[in-house]
Amino acid sequence: MLAVKPKENVFGERARNLRDKKGKTQEDVANAVGLSRARYSHYENGRVEPDIETIRKLADYYECTTDYLMGLSDIPSNEDTSVREEFNDPRTDLMFKDWKNMTDEQKEEALEMMKYIKFKYGDKNNDK
Fold first, then answer.
1. Among 51, 11, 13, CA closest to 35
2. How far apart are CA 64 and CA 42, in angstroms?
């Protein structure tokens, strides 16, 4: 006979932990994502599994990845907020939009130029 290990409720545990960190009630979260409090409670307690759209809504609400909620990753977010802000700057886009079309030699030269600029002006991140 094959022994089946009980399924862990990773989604529910993570949803509960994220909710607690935000200091919200189940009612608060349910209202924010368009669910009944009872339905949301079922997700946290592992009685019901959410559909993909609900997982996406909860990931947006908790500002984490869907992979984290589902237990596929132990890292809540795949982006540092400061990195996201930097890459939303149009100047950054201008600098890197052609990177994929550059030859290896051109990429190496660009990296050397960046190293020179960093050396010339110092590392501003370490000055803080």
1. 51
2. 20
Tell me, which fold does domain 10-70 have in CATH? 434 Repressor (Amino-terminal Domain) (1.10.260)
Query: Looking at the predicted structure, is the pLDDT value of residue 37 above 80?
Result: yes
pLDDT tens for 91-122 read 766 666 777 788 899 889 988 998 999 888 88
Measured CA to CA, the distance from residue 38 to residue 67 in angstroms comes to: 24
Give domain limits for the chain.
Answer: 10-70, 81-127
CA atoms within 13 A on the CB side of 85: 3
From the list 67, 41, 37, the residue with the least C-alpha distance to 55 is: 67
Yes or no: say if 44 and 15 are a contact pair by the CB < 8 Å rule: yes
